Protein backbone atom coordinates (compact mmCIF):
# COMPACT_ATOMS: atom_id res chain seq x y z
CA UNK A 1 0.00 0.00 0.00
CA UNK A 2 2.70 2.50 1.01
CA UNK A 3 4.59 2.04 -2.26
CA UNK A 4 1.49 2.72 -4.37
CA UNK A 5 0.50 5.78 -2.31
CA UNK A 6 3.97 7.33 -2.41
CA UNK A 7 4.63 6.50 -6.06
CA UNK A 8 1.32 8.14 -6.99
CA UNK A 9 2.40 11.20 -4.98
CA UNK A 10 5.55 11.46 -7.11
CA UNK A 11 8.15 9.93 -4.79
CA UNK A 12 10.83 7.48 -5.93
CA UNK A 13 10.47 4.44 -3.67
CA UNK A 14 13.06 1.75 -2.94
CA UNK A 15 11.83 -1.26 -0.95
CA UNK A 16 13.64 -3.58 1.47
CA UNK A 17 12.38 -6.95 2.67
CA UNK A 18 14.24 -7.08 6.00
CA UNK A 19 16.21 -4.93 8.42
CA UNK A 20 19.60 -5.91 7.05
CA UNK A 21 18.57 -4.90 3.54
CA UNK A 22 17.36 -1.53 4.84
CA UNK A 23 20.88 -0.78 6.07
CA UNK A 24 22.43 -1.93 2.79
CA UNK A 25 20.03 0.19 0.74
CA UNK A 26 20.65 3.18 2.97
CA UNK A 27 24.42 2.94 2.36
CA UNK A 28 23.85 2.73 -1.38
CA UNK A 29 20.88 5.04 -2.00
CA UNK A 30 21.13 7.65 0.80
CA UNK A 31 17.35 8.30 0.78
CA UNK A 32 15.72 11.56 1.87
CA UNK A 33 13.45 9.65 4.29
CA UNK A 34 13.18 6.13 5.69
CA UNK A 35 9.88 4.41 6.51
CA UNK A 36 10.28 1.41 8.83
CA UNK A 37 7.96 -1.27 10.15
CA UNK A 38 8.59 -2.14 13.79
CA UNK A 39 8.44 -5.87 12.98
CA UNK A 40 10.93 -6.95 10.27
CA UNK A 41 12.99 -10.10 9.68
CA UNK A 42 16.69 -10.31 10.66
CA UNK A 43 16.89 -6.90 12.38
CA UNK A 44 13.81 -5.28 13.91
CA UNK A 45 12.70 -1.78 13.03
CA UNK A 46 13.64 -0.27 16.41
CA UNK A 47 17.24 -1.46 16.14
CA UNK A 48 17.46 -0.43 12.47
CA UNK A 49 16.28 3.05 13.44
CA UNK A 50 18.98 3.37 16.12
CA UNK A 51 21.65 2.26 13.64
CA UNK A 52 20.46 4.67 10.93
CA UNK A 53 20.38 7.60 13.31
CA UNK A 54 23.92 6.79 14.44
CA UNK A 55 25.12 6.52 10.82
CA UNK A 56 23.48 9.69 9.49
CA UNK A 57 25.75 12.73 9.35
CA UNK A 58 22.80 15.14 9.29
CA UNK A 59 19.06 14.98 9.90
CA UNK A 60 17.58 11.77 8.47
CA UNK A 61 13.78 11.64 8.98
CA UNK A 62 12.50 8.22 10.02
CA UNK A 63 8.79 7.34 10.03
CA UNK A 64 7.94 4.23 12.04
CA UNK A 65 4.76 2.26 11.19
CA UNK A 66 3.24 -0.65 13.05
CA UNK A 67 0.04 -2.45 13.98
CA UNK A 68 1.26 -1.93 17.56
CA UNK A 69 -0.37 1.44 18.18
CA UNK A 70 -0.61 1.74 21.96
CA UNK A 71 0.93 4.73 23.73
CA UNK A 72 3.72 2.51 25.06
CA UNK A 73 4.50 1.19 21.56
CA UNK A 74 4.61 4.73 20.13
CA UNK A 75 6.87 5.90 22.95
CA UNK A 76 9.21 2.94 22.40
CA UNK A 77 9.42 3.74 18.69
CA UNK A 78 10.21 7.39 19.34
CA UNK A 79 12.79 6.50 21.95
CA UNK A 80 14.60 4.45 19.32
CA UNK A 81 15.08 7.71 17.40
CA UNK A 82 12.07 7.74 15.06
CA UNK A 83 10.79 11.20 14.19
CA UNK A 84 7.17 10.12 13.77
CA UNK A 85 5.06 7.02 14.41
CA UNK A 86 1.97 5.94 12.45
CA UNK A 87 -0.31 3.08 13.40
CA UNK A 88 -1.53 0.56 10.83
CA UNK A 89 -3.85 0.46 9.02
CA UNK A 90 -3.31 4.10 8.14
CA UNK A 91 -5.12 6.54 5.90
CA UNK A 92 -3.22 7.31 2.65
CA UNK A 93 -3.82 11.04 3.06
CA UNK A 94 -2.41 10.98 6.58
CA UNK A 95 0.65 9.04 5.39
CA UNK A 96 1.34 11.65 2.70
CA UNK A 97 0.76 14.51 5.13
CA UNK A 98 3.16 13.10 7.72
CA UNK A 99 5.83 12.48 5.10
CA UNK A 100 5.39 16.04 3.80
CA UNK A 101 5.94 17.38 7.34
CA UNK A 102 9.08 15.29 7.82
CA UNK A 103 10.51 16.38 4.47
CA UNK A 104 9.77 20.04 5.26
CA UNK A 105 11.65 19.58 8.53
CA UNK A 106 14.54 18.01 6.65
CA UNK A 107 14.55 20.98 4.26
CA UNK A 108 14.81 23.36 7.24
CA UNK A 109 17.88 21.48 8.47
CA UNK A 110 19.47 21.44 5.02
CA UNK A 111 19.07 25.23 4.83
CA UNK A 112 21.23 25.60 7.90
CA UNK A 113 18.61 25.25 10.58
CA UNK A 114 20.56 22.78 12.67
CA UNK A 115 22.22 20.56 10.10
CA UNK A 116 25.45 19.01 11.28
CA UNK A 117 28.49 21.14 10.48
CA UNK A 118 26.57 24.38 9.92
CA UNK A 119 28.25 26.16 12.81
CA UNK A 120 26.54 28.20 15.54
CA UNK A 121 22.99 29.35 14.95
CA UNK A 122 21.94 32.97 14.84
CA UNK A 123 20.55 34.06 18.18
CA UNK A 124 16.75 33.99 18.30
CA UNK A 125 15.19 37.43 18.74
CA UNK A 126 13.35 37.56 22.07
CA UNK A 127 9.81 38.84 21.57
CA UNK A 128 8.01 41.20 23.90
CA UNK A 129 5.15 39.49 25.78
CA UNK A 130 2.46 41.21 23.66
CA UNK A 131 4.18 40.25 20.39
CA UNK A 132 4.70 36.68 21.58
CA UNK A 133 1.01 36.39 22.47
CA UNK A 134 0.07 37.76 19.04
CA UNK A 135 2.30 35.15 17.35
CA UNK A 136 0.76 32.43 19.52
CA UNK A 137 -2.72 33.46 18.42
CA UNK A 138 -1.66 33.51 14.76
CA UNK A 139 -0.20 30.00 14.97
CA UNK A 140 -3.32 28.65 16.69
CA UNK A 141 -5.63 30.25 14.12
CA UNK A 142 -3.49 28.87 11.28
CA UNK A 143 -3.67 25.39 12.82
CA UNK A 144 -7.47 25.70 13.09
CA UNK A 145 -7.84 27.00 9.54
CA UNK A 146 -5.78 24.29 7.85
CA UNK A 147 -6.30 21.48 10.40
CA UNK A 148 -2.56 21.44 11.07
CA UNK A 149 -1.10 19.91 14.23
CA UNK A 150 0.27 22.26 16.89
CA UNK A 151 2.21 21.28 20.01
CA UNK A 152 2.80 23.36 23.14
CA UNK A 153 5.51 22.57 25.71
CA UNK A 154 6.40 24.04 29.08
CA UNK A 155 9.86 23.13 30.34
CA UNK A 156 11.06 23.99 33.85
CA UNK A 157 14.17 23.29 35.88
CA UNK A 158 13.35 21.13 38.90
CA UNK A 159 14.17 22.50 42.35
CA UNK A 160 17.01 20.46 43.84
CA UNK A 161 17.57 19.47 47.42
CA UNK A 162 19.86 21.08 49.97
CA UNK A 163 23.09 22.30 48.37
CA UNK A 164 21.72 22.15 44.83
CA UNK A 165 22.19 25.07 42.44
CA UNK A 166 19.23 27.48 42.31
CA UNK A 167 17.01 26.96 39.28
CA UNK A 168 17.62 30.53 38.12
CA UNK A 169 21.32 29.73 37.63
CA UNK A 170 20.47 26.78 35.36
CA UNK A 171 17.96 28.43 33.03
CA UNK A 172 20.69 29.78 30.66
CA UNK A 173 21.89 26.20 30.17
CA UNK A 174 18.30 25.03 29.65
CA UNK A 175 17.77 27.80 27.08
CA UNK A 176 20.84 26.66 25.13
CA UNK A 177 19.59 23.07 25.15
CA UNK A 178 16.14 24.11 23.92
CA UNK A 179 17.58 26.26 21.13
CA UNK A 180 19.63 23.28 19.97
CA UNK A 181 16.52 21.15 19.58
CA UNK A 182 13.97 23.45 17.92
CA UNK A 183 13.52 24.93 14.44
CA UNK A 184 13.47 28.54 13.31
CA UNK A 185 9.71 28.37 12.86
CA UNK A 186 9.18 27.34 16.49
CA UNK A 187 8.42 29.93 19.18
CA UNK A 188 10.37 30.01 22.46
CA UNK A 189 9.65 32.38 25.34
CA UNK A 190 10.89 32.51 28.91
CA UNK A 191 7.99 32.19 31.34
CA UNK A 192 9.72 32.78 34.69
CA UNK A 193 13.03 32.18 36.49
CA UNK A 194 12.70 28.42 36.01
CA UNK A 195 11.59 27.74 32.48
CA UNK A 196 10.26 28.33 28.98
CA UNK A 197 7.18 27.98 26.81
CA UNK A 198 7.60 26.39 23.36
CA UNK A 199 5.16 26.40 20.45
CA UNK A 200 5.90 23.86 17.69
CA UNK A 201 3.84 24.38 14.50
CA UNK A 202 3.10 21.40 12.24
CA UNK A 203 4.15 19.04 15.02
CA UNK A 204 2.20 15.90 15.92
CA UNK A 205 2.27 13.99 19.22
CA UNK A 206 5.38 11.96 18.22
CA UNK A 207 7.41 14.99 17.16
CA UNK A 208 6.60 16.86 20.36
CA UNK A 209 7.56 13.83 22.44
CA UNK A 210 10.88 13.61 20.59
CA UNK A 211 11.72 17.26 21.36
CA UNK A 212 10.68 16.88 25.01
CA UNK A 213 12.74 13.73 25.48
CA UNK A 214 15.85 15.21 23.84
CA UNK A 215 15.68 18.31 26.05
CA UNK A 216 15.24 16.20 29.19
CA UNK A 217 18.08 13.85 28.21
CA UNK A 218 20.54 16.63 27.37
CA UNK A 219 19.73 18.50 30.59
CA UNK A 220 20.86 15.51 32.64
CA UNK A 221 24.28 15.53 30.99
CA UNK A 222 27.18 17.53 32.48
CA UNK A 223 26.80 21.23 31.78
CA UNK A 224 29.22 22.29 29.08
CA UNK A 225 27.39 25.31 27.67
CA UNK A 226 29.33 28.62 27.70
CA UNK A 227 26.37 30.40 29.28
CA UNK A 228 26.66 28.04 32.24
CA UNK A 229 30.38 28.44 32.91
CA UNK A 230 29.87 28.55 36.67
CA UNK A 231 28.51 25.01 36.54
CA UNK A 232 30.68 23.67 33.73
CA UNK A 233 32.36 21.05 35.93
CA UNK A 234 29.15 19.95 37.66
CA UNK A 235 26.69 17.25 36.78
CA UNK A 236 23.48 17.87 34.87
CA UNK A 237 20.08 18.80 36.20
CA UNK A 238 16.55 17.51 35.82
CA UNK A 239 13.59 19.21 34.21
CA UNK A 240 9.84 18.70 34.28
CA UNK A 241 7.98 19.03 30.99
CA UNK A 242 4.30 19.42 30.19
CA UNK A 243 2.97 18.95 26.64
CA UNK A 244 -0.44 19.78 25.14
CA UNK A 245 -1.71 19.43 21.58
CA UNK A 246 -4.06 20.66 18.93
CA UNK A 247 -6.23 19.13 17.55
CA UNK A 248 -7.58 17.59 20.73
CA UNK A 249 -11.15 17.21 21.96
CA UNK A 250 -10.33 19.39 24.99
CA UNK A 251 -8.58 22.14 23.01
CA UNK A 252 -11.06 24.59 21.48
CA UNK A 253 -9.04 27.78 21.92
CA UNK A 254 -5.51 29.01 22.47
CA UNK A 255 -6.31 29.47 26.14
CA UNK A 256 -7.35 25.80 26.38
CA UNK A 257 -3.99 24.82 24.86
CA UNK A 258 -2.13 26.94 27.44
CA UNK A 259 -4.26 25.77 30.37
CA UNK A 260 -3.68 22.13 29.46
CA UNK A 261 0.08 22.56 29.15
CA UNK A 262 0.11 24.23 32.58
CA UNK A 263 -1.85 21.30 34.03
CA UNK A 264 0.50 18.80 32.37
CA UNK A 265 3.57 20.59 33.76
CA UNK A 266 2.06 20.70 37.24
CA UNK A 267 1.41 16.96 37.15
CA UNK A 268 4.96 16.28 36.00
CA UNK A 269 6.32 18.43 38.84
CA UNK A 270 4.16 16.65 41.43
CA UNK A 271 5.89 13.38 40.55
CA UNK A 272 9.14 14.61 42.17
CA UNK A 273 10.58 15.98 38.94
CA UNK A 274 12.35 14.55 35.92
CA UNK A 275 9.07 13.56 34.24
CA UNK A 276 7.28 14.38 31.00
CA UNK A 277 3.49 14.63 31.05
CA UNK A 278 1.77 14.54 27.65
CA UNK A 279 -1.84 15.69 27.72
CA UNK A 280 -3.67 14.31 24.71
CA UNK A 281 -6.89 12.50 25.55
CA UNK A 282 -5.55 11.97 29.06
CA UNK A 283 -2.37 12.78 30.92
CA UNK A 284 0.37 10.29 30.05
CA UNK A 285 3.36 10.46 32.38
CA UNK A 286 6.76 8.82 32.04
CA UNK A 287 10.44 9.21 32.82
CA UNK A 288 12.67 9.64 29.74
CA UNK A 289 15.62 7.27 29.45
CA UNK A 290 19.23 8.45 29.22
Describe the 3D structure:
- The structure is a single chain.
- It contains nine helices and nine strands.
- It is an alpha/beta fold and 290 residues long.
- The chain has two domains: 2-110, 3-Layer(aba) Sandwich (Rossmann fold); 129-286, Alpha-Beta Plaits.
- The two termini are 36 Å apart.
- The strands form two sheets. It has a six-stranded mixed β-sheet, sandwiched between helices. The chain has a three-stranded parallel β-sheet with strand order 1-2-3, sandwiched between helices.
- Helix content is 41%, strand content 17%.
Present the secondary structure layout.
Elements: H1 2-8, H2 19-29, E1 34-37, H3 45-55, E2 62-66, H4 71-79, E3 84-87, H5 92-110, H6 129-146, E4 150-157, H7 167-179, E5 187-190, E6 195-201, H8 205-219, E7 239-246, H9 254-270, E8 276-279, E9 283-286
C-alpha Rg (nearest Å): 19 Å
Series of secondary-structure elements, N-terminal to C-terminal: HHEHEHEHHEHEEHEHEE
Low-confidence stretches: 113-122, 224-233
Count the DSSP helices: 9
Q: Could you say what the CATH architecture of the largest domain is?
A: 2-Layer Sandwich
The main sheet comes to: 6 strands, mixed
Secondary structure tally: strands: 9
Short descriptors:
290 residues, alpha/beta, Rossmann fold, Alpha-Beta Plaits, 2 domains, six-stranded mixed β-sheet, three-stranded parallel β-sheet, 9 helices, 41% helix, globular
